[in-house]
Design brief:
By secondary structure, this protein is an alpha+beta fold. The strands form four sheets. Strands 7, 8, 9, 10, 11 and 12 form a six-stranded mixed beta sheet that branches. Strands 14-15-16-19-18-17 form a six-stranded antiparallel β-barrel. A four-stranded antiparallel beta sheet has the order 2-3-4-5. The chain has six domains: about 1-55, no CATH class; about 70-140, no CATH class; about 150-220, no CATH class; about 250-345 and about 390-445, no CATH class; about 490-565, no CATH class; about 570-625. The protein is built from 20 helices and 19 strands.
């Protein structure tokens, strides 16, 4: 279900009714019907201020392109019967059927129609509702497009075993299909240390035919080797005519070693969504230890949300600029302008590989809830996603190679010292600036089908296509901030006295106090457990779900002190080290009879307190520990 509004109808906002005058990219110009003044707002603000906005199923005529002739006939026949149910006239007949006269009771008409078609009454009611929501394609049987219908038992573990067997099969001798199935069962035991699932023989052959892709399993070894060397044709033959019609997803390692949230040095994994029509990046997310299904759920949530609606994004940017003023981040005003002018594109179909993170049920449910269909690429064939694969290479060549910690293909760039590496959150925002400020704004040839020799940027292609699509009656809207939070991945923890312990941090909000005395906070969870949503790219806050279903924003304990004094932790640690050194040296000299040497404060890590004198450190210690001098007096008795 997608939140939409009709540009030909008046829309109600929080301060009255408006008429749509013009829509350009992600901006809408509205006329107040009573006050007669004109305003221009973004789709995100429109979505937030709209009143009584119904979510509808957007008609997708491209569904009819992948249906068989028999399925099209069935849809047409259902449509005729529902029209007769509602109007009393069967299409193609001039006379009205008195049994379905609109003046009679609708429930009686539904009963007669169910008896006529030999189906239950609930099916007729469902067909009626689907027809009213989408008269064009609403009666298409969704089971024809549902991945879990015919392949519900094709788990990610079983897909991995099939892929491991089939990836080398083009170079192997031809064997019977039954032998390939036995090899898959043995590979499953080798990979997962448990017996393969018990499936019917027909199911094994069906799954093998699905996983083989374009490989002809019965052809000779020579023919299969020749076919394997041939470039793969595009998976979908149709060319997208608008942004969002086809989107490619993939995850790859960013070749920049950085400091991970755990404090160790490592690499980030970047998941990216590329629009095929414009070759622009719609959204991206990062993972510290590979990608999981939760990371891809966050990626889908970002695609259907404007960046300005993401909680904590601007606050994290300001904190990073305060801590790293020379990092080269975009200024706050330029960053906000970049966010507000980013075109909004709602995806319709996603192409992704067969990785376990993409094949998880969480990804399937999240995409289905937003009305986005999924197409899986052929195993071992990255050329079925050429746009996102090309972006992965460009990201490592143009972005990663310019930062400290780059560990590309050369061994010279590896083994850098830890203090030369960037923190993961700073690297994330630098990548944000490069993608949305450089990559999506760089003109290149071949993006416009009518002018292949002229240079256009992905943003320009999106804006031109959106201007053309602005005449479409139904316009998809982005999610509100609260809807974005509820679309993020979730987890459960015990609510303790310190708060919610998650990712090595304690998160707290004073509104959690009343919940500590509630035995069952959320139905279905254990006593004391609480569910919360989290954003993988924003680690300073989570959103707990209260007993009434409300969202409670929880921050890391002590983060207010960190934001006020960004170096307070480092200064306190340096002062403690200085104090310990003075005490140890003085006591040792007093016991051994050696001279008490004057002590010089060691240097702290490079910051504004680098050249602090002993007196300044004493003042800092007195401020942090009132009543204590903080330095050792050699005239006092140390014992």
């Amino acid at each position: 279900m997608r939140p939409t509004f009709n540009i030909e109808d008046d829309i109600e906002l929080d301060d009255g009714f408006y008429r749509v005058l013009q829509r350009s990219s992600s901006l809408v110009k509205l006329l107040h019907l009573k006050l007669k003044h004109v305003i221009t707002i973004s789709l995100a603000e429109l979505r937030l201020r709209a009143v009584n906005l119904a979510a509808r199923i957007v008609s997708r005529p491209d569904k009819l392109d992948v249906m068989t002739d028999l399925e099209k006939i069935q849809v047409s026949e259902r449509t005729r019967h529902i029209v007769e149910l509602l109007t009393g006239v069967f299409p193609g007949k001039a006379k009205r059927n008195p049994a379905y006269d609109p003046a009679t009771n609708l429930a009686d008409r539904v009963t007669r129609k169910a008896a006529e078609l030999h189906v239950c009454e609930r099916t007729i009611w469902r067909w009626k509702r689907q027809f009213e929501e989408d008269p064009e394609t609403g009666l298409v049987d969704r089971r024809w497009f549902r991945r879990g219908h015919a392949y519900a038992k094709l788990t990610p573990a079983l897909s991995k075993a099939f892929a491991a067997v089939l990836v080398d099969y083009p170079e192997e001798p031809t064997v019977p299909l039954a032998q390939l199935i036995e090899q898959t069962k043995a590979k499953y035991v080798e990979l997962h240390h448990q017996l393969a699932p018990k499936l019917a023989p027909a199911t094994w052959y069906k799954y093998l035919n699905f996983m083989r892709g374009r490989t002809n399993l019965k052809a000779s070894a020579k023919a299969r080797r020749s076919e394997a060397r041939r470039p793969t044709r595009p998976m979908l033959t149709r060319v997208p005519t608008r942004p969002g019609e086809l989107v490619e997803l993939d995850a790859t390692r960013l070749d920049v070693e950085c400091i991970l949230p755990s404090g160790r040095a490592g690499f980030l994994t970047v998941s990216t969504a590329i629009d095929v029509c414009s070759s622009g990046v719609l959204a991206f997310t990062v993972g510290a230890f590979g990608t999981r299904g939760t990371d891809q759920v966050a990626l889908i949530a970002q695609m259907v949300t404007m960046p300005e609606s993401r909680h904590g994004l601007l606050e994290a940017r300001r904190r990073l600029m305060q801590d790293h003023p020379d990092a080269g981040l975009l200024p706050p005003d330029e960053f906000e302008r970049l966010i507000l002018h980013k075109p909004f594109v709602y995806p319709s179909q996603m192409t992704m590989d067969n990785g376990s993170d993409f094949q998880s049920n969480t990804v399937y449910n999240a995409s289905r809830a937003r009305g986005i269909s999924i197409v899986f690429a052929s195993p071992g064939q990255p050329t079925t996603k050429p746009h996102v694969e090309r972006f992965n290479g460009e990201m490592n060549r143009s972005f990663a190679a310019t930062h400290a910690g780059y560990a590309g293909d050369s061994a010279v760039n590896k083994g850098r010292r830890k203090h030369d590496l960037l923190p993961w959150d700073l690297l994330l925002h630098l990548l944000f600036d490069w993608i949305y400020g450089t990559y999506n704004a760089t003109p290149s040839k071949g993006l416009h089908p009518l002018q292949p020799g002229r240079k256009f940027s992905p943003y320009e292609v999106m804006e031109q296509a959106e201007d053309i699509a602005s005449s479409i009656v139904e316009t998809a809207l982005p999610l509100t901030p609260d809807e974005f939070v509820r679309s993020l991945p979730s987890d459960t923890r015990i609510l303790s006295d310190a708060g919610i312990r998650f990712a090595n941090h304690d998160y707290w909000n004073d509104d959690l106090n009343p919940l500590r005395t509630v035995q069952t906070i959320t139905q279905g969870l254990s006593e004391g457990e609480i569910r919360f949503h989290f954003d993988p790219d924003v680690r300073d806050r989570i959103w707990a779900i209260g007993a009434a279903g409300e969202l409670i924003e929880c921050r890391i304990r002590g983060i207010e002190l960190y934001e006020a004094l960004p170096h307070s932790t480092e200064r306190a640690a340096a002062a403690r080290r200085a104090q310990d050194k003075v005490i140890t040296s003085t006591i040792t000299n007093l016991v051994t009879g050696g001279p008490v040497r004057p002590w010089v404060a060691p240097k702290v890590s490079p910051d504004i307190y680098e050249d602090a004198t002993i007196g300044e450190l004493e003042i800092e210690l007195a401020a942090m520990n009132p009543g204590e001098t903080g330095l050792f007096d050699p005239d006092e008795d140390p014992l």
